[in-house]
Every structure is written in structure tokens, then in C-alpha cells.
What does this fold into?
Amino acid sequence: MDRLIDAASGLIHRVDDDLPWGNACRRTPGYVEVQRAMCYGRLGFAREAGALWSQVLDAVPSTARRDRGVYLARQATAAAAGREPEQALEIAQSAVGIAVETGSVRLARELATLERAMRPWHAAEVGRDLAEILAPVTEGA
It folds into this structure.
């Protein structure tokens, strides 16, 4: 997978701006590493995904609040997949703050994904804490 993502990185300059998805791959800092982290997370490589999300987040400009929130939610989901619910909860707190501040629908969807990933702990204290933290985003959804 890494080899394919590295190869894709070399093709970004060929993306046609007239296509519906535009030029996000050129205007999003760390776009290829974001895609790599998403792949790691979805393939169950939680530790690798979490470490890569940390690197990606270090490079996100302060003006990209919505992106930062989405990436935090994805990092929290990777932590949950790696059976680190307390870490997922800690990361989620920052993501929820951004969701409330921005009203981002995309971020709310990522937090719903986190909520599903945390289902194994729904009856535990960490699960109840997550439900409380997510309430401002999930109420009325």
C-alpha cells in the first residue's frame, strides 16, 4: 500500500482542476499523508495511523480549523480501533470543540464514525463520558 501511495504522490501534478473534486490534493497540506493515515486506520493499523495523524496535525495551519477537527476525529477513531478508548476520548474532546465552534457537517460525520468505533465501551465510564462529550454535536442529529 505504501508503495502505491508513494507512486500516487508523484502523479498529483496531473490532477485536472476541472474535475468535480477540484485540486484538493494540491491545496491541502499533507494531502498524501492524510490519505495514507486514512488507509492505515481503515486497514486496522491503529498505531501507525495514530502516529501519522500526529504528524499530519503538526503541519495543519491554524486557519484550517475544520480540517484539524476532521483529522482529530479520525485519529480518535484510530485510537478506538487500537483498543485505546481513553486516548480516543481525550482526542475527541478537541474535535468536538471544533465541531461546536464551526458547525462542520463533515466533522459531525467523522464524530459519528468515532461513536460507532467506541461502541464496545458504551456501558463503561469512558463510553458514557464520550456520549456526554458528543452530546452538543449529536443532539438533534
In short: The mean pLDDT is 87. The chain is about 70% helix and 0% strand. The chain has one domain: 2-138. The first helix runs from residue 2 to 9.
